[in-house]
Design brief:
Helices cover 35% and strands 22% of the residues. By secondary structure, the chain is α/β, with parallel strands linked by helices. The protein folds into three domains: 3-256, 4-Layer Sandwich (Glutamine Phosphoribosylpyrophosphate, subunit 1, domain 1), CATH 3.60.20.10; 259-453, Glucose-6-phosphate isomerase like protein, domain 1 (Rossmann fold, 3-Layer(aba) Sandwich); 464-624, Glucose-6-phosphate isomerase like protein, domain 1 (Rossmann fold). The structure holds 5-amino-5-deoxy-1-O-phosphono-D-mannitol.
Length: 624
């Protein structure tokens, strides 16, 4: 959830580190810090509470020279967000500094032991224990820092991605990971065997690295890397056995990480959806033969053919897409699908067997609970399939097979294009499986494929129809509560709309299946309660939702509706109405969610919220 940046080379480290922190700020942002070995050979640490810009202001009169450094943007887990608890942390002698992502679970025991041995702590974080432990190992074993890092990490229980500076060795940057991602960028000069141009970059994801190089190594669990100024690097495991890393080429470009003229990443990402899902579908639909090509299924046919059920594990927005996926896969491929919160699944004793297929859905590919659910499924011998966005992230590397959603980097904390990308991927999955299992008749299958290909254009039209939302959203800034209702495929859309509003505007919102209103929530309705109803017009549920709206209207609730073009019944009962193009029920969520994303965005803007970095949240939840 926090972000790490590191640099060693010939350039000034500070500007590279700060730029990297800005790019990583979406991961966590309650404090930030930087550590450098400056030209005078001092190991300096500068930290500030708040955003990266606060850190920049605080160093305006400081020595920020030096060609080696580490930096961090924090999302607090242990210890309140303040400058003391911000990273980097010094060791007691101030010879070492360290940044850390993750949680050291046994930090209390370690701290007590270190304190007994005379070590004094400056703050309350689990991270400080790590740097103190490394120094303690150095002193007690009379060893170099790299050996001390090995020794210290062997005593640690928990998850970590760390980077360490040692004042006595300004020519090496040490880093390690377990359970928290860390990526090493290989500088362009390193190939040329010209030590004068060699450099390494470090990032908790690729965003701070991509500007400088596309050649990276994904550090593996329990690996420790030593990056030398001369361009050489050495990677070992905790037992000091040399590892041979695989080099990867990043598949993203800098433009994708910029706002491109939009005031916020969230709005940019909402507007990117038509193109993002075009990319998601590209190469996976054969328009001539009306076929679906998903190598993840094709190459593992035997697992899918013998599966008696599918279990989908995910969190947050990804869990909402899983619910819609369940409806579609069951309908198309006639296989039972269960949807689980990964955080619950991992701590239950689920009944699993080797014929189960488990699908893990995650935008970031780094969500700790989802990763743990995968481990559990693997222990039971299940075949595990990943649906992720971030290429090379931990989930794709820990699953047996899978499909990338390919919607490009999602920076806004509120997930938007990843949701629709996940839906498309799950629909493709359902169709591909249906084809293998022969559960759909050919005419219907072809119609489903044809209708899916029309969705990007219909999304574009939907975006056009959201233009009026900015104006009427202002009327709802006073509200303390919202209710979102939908039925069938649109019920998870109601959940997703409510989550979007909660996370970026801080207005309490709940999503319900519309028919559940009568069983309790209808008591909440009065003239102050806005009710957002997704009432797209196809199938038998439309008439039923019309009745549900009447029940709310007669209790003076305010109706904001999302309806199909040409609708009259719901429109006439609505205070505000957004029309979307007609499509089949199972594809309606792809369009219906867009007005809800836009609505939450403009309500949050009207309330003066920071939509890209809402309070208390982080883009990827890499801790439990
Ligand atoms: O990266 P993941 O998809 O695994 O993340 C899961 C949730 O943390 C995420 O969807 C979260 O709910 C979003 N902020 C919602 O907008």
């Amino acid at each position: 959830m926090c972000g790490i940046v590191g640099y060693i080379g010939t350039k000034d480290a500070y500007p590279i580190l700060i730029k990297g922190l800005h790019r990583l700020e979406y991961r966590g942002y309650d404090s930030a810090g930087v550590s450098l070995i400056n030209q005078g050979g001092d190991l300096v640490v500068y930290k500030a509470k708040g955003k990266v810009s606060a850190l920049e202001q605080s160093v305006s009169d400081k020595d920020i020279s030096g060609t080696i450094g580490i930096a961090h943007t924090r999302w607090a887990t242990h210890g309140e967000p303040n400058a003391t608890n911000a990273h980097p942390h010094y060791s007691q002698s101030h010879a070492l500094s360290l940044v850390h992502n993750g949680i050291i679970e046994n930090y209390k025991t370690l701290r007590v032991e270190l304190e007994k041995n005379g070590i004094q702590f400056a703050g309350e974080t689990d991270t400080e224990v790590l740097v103190q432990l490394i120094e303690y190992m150095q002193v007690t074993h009379q060893c170099d820092t790299v050996t001390a890092v090995h020794l210290a990490l062997k005593n640690v229980v928990g998850a970590y991605a760390i980077a360490v500076l040692d004042k006595r060795n300004p020519n090496q940057l040490i880093c390690a990971r377990k359970g928290s991602p860390l990526i090493i960028g290989i500088g362009k000069g390193n190939d040329k065997a010209k030590p004068g141009e060699s450099e390494f970059f470090l990032g908790s994801d690729a965003t701070p690295i991509i500007e400088f190089t596309d050649k990276v190594i994904y550090l593996q669990d329990e690996e420790i890397a030593v990056l030398n100024r001369n361009g050489k690097h050495a990677i070992t495991n905790l037992d000091s056995i040399k590892q041979t890393p695989q080099m990867h080429v990043l598949q993203m470009n800098l433009d994708e990480l910029e706002k491109g003229g939009y005031p916020h990443f969230m709005l940019k990402e909402i507007y990117e959806q038509p193109n993002a899902i075009r990319t998601c579908m590209r190469g996976r639909i054969d328009p001539t033969n009306k076929d679906i090509i998903l190598s993840g299924i094709r190459d593992n046919k035997e697992h899918f053919m013998r599966a008696r059920r599918i279990i989908i594990c995910a969190c947050g927005t990804s869990w909402h897409s899983a619910l819609i996926g369940k409806y579609f896969i069951e309908e198309a491929a006639h296989i039972p699908v269960e949807v689980e919160y990964a955080s619950e699944f991992r701590y239950r004793n689920p009944v699993l067997d080797t014929s189960d297929v488990v699908i893990a859905i995650s935008q970031s590919g780094e969500t700790a609970d989802t990763l743990a659910a995968i481990q559990l499924a693997k222990q039971h011998g299940c075949f595990v399939y990943g649906v992720c966005n971030v290429i090379g992230s931990s989930i794709p590397r820990n699953t047996d097979s899978g499909t990338y959603i390919h919607v490009g980097p999602e920076i806004g904390v509120a997930s938007t294009k990843a949701f629709t990308g996940q839906l498309i991927t799950l629909i493709l999955f359902g169709l591909a499986l249906a084809k293998e299992k022969n559960t759909l008749d050919e005419v219907l299958f072809h119609q489903l494929v044809d209708d899916l290909m029309l969705i990007p254009e219909k999304m574009q039209q939907t975006l056009e129809k959201t233009k009026g939302i900015e104006q009427f959203a202002k009327a709802f800034t006073y509200c303390k509560n919202f209710i979102y209702l939908g039925r069938g495929y649109n019920y998870p859309v109601a959940l997703e709309g409510a989550l979007k509003l909660k996370e970026i505007s801080y207005i309490h919102a709940e999503g319900y299946p519309a028919a559940e209103m009568k069983h309790g929530p209808i008591a909440l309705i009065d003239e102050e309660m806005p009710v957002v109803v997704i009432a797209t017009k196809r199938g038998m549920l439309y008439d039923k939702i019309v009745s549900n709206i009447q029940e709310i209207k007669s209790r003076r609730g305010k109706i904001i509706s999302v309806v199909t073009e040409g609708d009259t019944a719901v429109k006439s009962m609505s205070d505000y109405c957004i029309e979307i193009p007609d499509t089949r029920d199972s594809y309606a969520p792809l369009l219906a969610v867009i007005p809800l994303q836009v609505l939450s965005y403009y309500i949050a803007i009207a309330k003066g919220r920071n939509v890209d970095q809402p309070r208390n949240l982080a883009k990827s939840v890499t801790v439990e």
